[in-house]
Design brief:
- The protein contains twelve helices and 30 strands.
- With 626 residues, it is of the alpha+beta class.
- The strands form nine sheets. Strands 24, 25, 28, 29 and 30 form a five-stranded antiparallel β-sheet that branches. Strands 1-5-6-10 form a four-stranded mixed β-sheet, sandwiched between helices. The chain has a four-stranded mixed β-sheet with strand order 4-3-2-21.
- Mean pLDDT is 88; it is low at 14-33 and 234-251.
Length: 626
Amino acid sequence: MTKFNYLLFANYLFYRKNKIKYSFLIFMISFTLTNIPHSRIIAEWEPVIGTMVRWPLAIPARLAFELSEEEILYVLVENFEQQNQAIDYFNNNNISLENIQFIFTQTYSHWTRDYGPQFLISDTSWHIINQEFNGYLELNGCGNECNENMLLYDCNNNSFCNDQPNYQTEGYDCYVNNEFCQDFNGDGQILDWIGDSYCDDGTWGLNFQCDEYSYDCGDCETFIEDSNGYCDDNIQYMDANYLTRGAKSQIRGWDEDDNTNIDFAINMNMDILNIPIFLAGGNFMTDGYGTGFSTEIILNENNLEEDSFKNIIQEYLNISDYHIFDNPNISSIQHIDCIAKLVNEETMIIKKVHNSNPEYQCIENFVESVSQLNTFYNRPYKIFRIFCPEILSASWEINPVAAYTNSLILNDKVFIPQYGILEDQSAINTYENAMPGYEIIGIEEDINFPWYSEDALHCRTIGIHDRNIIHISHKAVRTEEVINNNIEIEIEIKDYHSISTSPYVISVNWKYANETEFNNSFELDQVNNNIFIGRFQNLNFNNEINYFISLENNINEIYNHPITGWHTFQINNNYDLNNDDYINVQDILYLVNLILSNEFTLIADLNNDNQLNIIDIMLLIDEILN
């Protein structure tokens, strides 16, 4: 028979009596681990003052109306002629010019997400990030196993599969026309990258500037010494007009997009931070606390090893935890915003496809990888799956599905691409579950600019963030972590105004889920310069609680966490062991009797270790004393 350890029980009561002596140490350790970084890239869901798009618009008029209704719509134009065209368009579509601001700059494409600005904020500085931009690589990924004869290495020792060249839709059969290359696409000729007039010096992902590959047969205007016989076959396709890897053969090009952030920063009188890497916004997510996410194509675009890339990101952007995932698509630009959407610090929406889709397993592998990660608050991400059915799309897309993750968060609204199919409403429902309280708005495609699988709403827009904000960091309550009905709420704040806007009034506003209004509240007390703390008291068991944190400063600005909507958790009664609707000494006696009689019941196993002992008694006493 298990003996009840009265000495241990007495020691525990001594601990409870003197608990206040230990609390300060525990508290300090907790917040040392979760401090807001001193400088950080702002996350998409943080406050914005507007959205950047490019003229001619590649978004529907309805979306332009929504984006300019309450915030500024920054429209990139090249000259006054374009500005006048845009003004006529807005007037004809009943879009007020009050919130339209034109930015004069040269642009080549409408994908402002990829070349537009990210923002680096600290206590004393605010920078527009000016990353490099030079268009898009198209790389193979999911499910492309390589035959032993086809595995080769370029001049930088990067591996590639010779019979899986990027831009296969342009007619390429191989990267290199060696003895194993054939007319795989059956068009009557063998086309490869060597000697095709595009300089392969790493710009397109591979480097053929060495003797092993005959210096790309002079494509980079370097000396050719063809000891391999690669240049003898060029006559059959050097004049093929349909070889269009990107847009380098045209007079205008991606370099025009590359100057956008400079012109925007000058117009807005903001400081610029130039970074020496390619960082397309569609392949970059951040939690705002020093964690970044991309697919591995980002390494190919920069022609860097992973460690080198991460070192640069750490140095310039203070991102210390960067997750790089396998390319999820068979062949595409492999941008992460077409597979996942980080909607807050701890929640990610990830696409789900039918199990017959060739990319199904690769997407599930992505989900598994994310599930192994911890958030800034050192716990797993909440993952919501969003079903993305097959769609009719452009010929250049492989395995196209609805890009529901390619959405835009704009303060208290979320805009989702809609494809005119039944699954559109299900996608909206998923966002409503993942982001309770946000206004979820579906946007139908424009017949002239349809939504694609790799190019939709998020790709063509980018938020312009607010410099003068107060940031609230809060580890939201989760049901699985609730152990009693008295729950502590802790926050850390960072005031980024040029002059402090304290004192602050900070409250937790809450309700039970079956109530319509947030009529309950309690204030948080300041325990040091930027840490505030408070407590839910005696919540009803077996209820769902909705709550949000509200901060008002001395200039009457209000900031909430979350930005809009609320956090949700469930509180369950696991301590009324004798089922008399009370938690008191009778439950302790009930538990002690179970232990003394060597009986076991699951309801009394409060720490879920499959045994009843002094630890369960401690937990029960802790619940009663709280």
